[in-house]
Structure formats: structure tokens, C-alpha cells
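Problem: given the chain below (196 residues), write out its structure.
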Amino acid sequence: MRATDPLPAPIGWITRFIGWTVGLLIIGGILYGYGSFTLMQSMEACLQQRTPPEASALESVKEFVACLDQRAGPLERLVLRQDKKMIAALPNAPCRFIGIWNSTRDSAVHKITLTEDSKFVAEPSSNTPAHAERITGSWGVYQDKMIWLYDDGHFWPPDINPIKDPSDDGFTLIERNGSTTRFALVDRVGLTSCTP
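Solution.
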């Protein structure tokens, strides 16, 4: 068989299918990249028009996503779709996570209070590094992931951690770098409208 001979019909169809698939994936990647780039420009504009946040981190991020959605075109909406669904599902504070927890990562321990109104307070324990500070913000759960939004103004992108091994007295979060943080229950204070 010479290089100029036509391919047999089944091989020709397979070759065309692979070629079209690769071509469409490349075009889709370019469009997604362009949508991400233009969405970044909208993010800058939405951040500049924000007033200093007196609201909770959750209220601030909902306002921010609404601004992005208003400015977005079809490509940007496609890129933003999953994050928009996630933020729209909050607040979502399942009873099993409400209470006071000791969280341990790399031998540093924090006392973290998760409240029914989707707020959290993280306080360093005596064995954490001296530079550790008290952190506050909003929390919630979406599709077996814990979402953290911080009051210090850094609320985008959200800190998203998959939940692993949940039980009545503990759970583990997978951090962005692949490390884990273990939460051990201290007390179930603050539960008024639900039971774990």
C-alpha cells in the first residue's frame, strides 16, 4: 500500500472522527481560555466598584458573583457557571458540622467554631506558631466540599476543600496542596434548630 492510496472505509471514518474530536477540543480550549481571560477583566471591575465590606463574607461574595453575572457574556457565563451554582447554594450549614472543633494540620492546632448561621471563627491554640491569628468568615457545604469565605477581604476564589471520612465526632478536609486537616469534635454548642 502506497502513501497516496485511499484508506479503507473503516480506517478513514476512525481517522476523521479522531481528527474532528481533537480539532473541537482545541477550539473549545481556546474559547474557554478567552472566556476566562475576559472574566478576569470583569472580576477586576467588580472588585473596584465594591464598597468596603461591612457585610459578611458570604454576602460580599454573593454581591460579587451577581456583578460578574451582570457583566458576563455567553463565554464568561460558561466559565462562571459552576462557581455561580455553588455560591447560590449557600448558606448551607449542615447540622453535623455545627459546633466547636479542634483542627490539626502539620501539628498546628486551631479551635474552630462553626455556627448555624454559616459563620466561623478559627483561633490558634497554644502550640501554633506565634504569627497565627484569629480568622473569621463564612462557611458552607456544597457537593461534599466545605467552602470557606474569609472576612479579611479575600473571598475570591473561595477556599474549597473536599470532605473525607465524615463521622459524628470528626471529619477530614483535603487542602489544595493535597495535605489533610483533621477536625475532632469538642462540643456541639450553638445548635438550636436542628440536631446532628
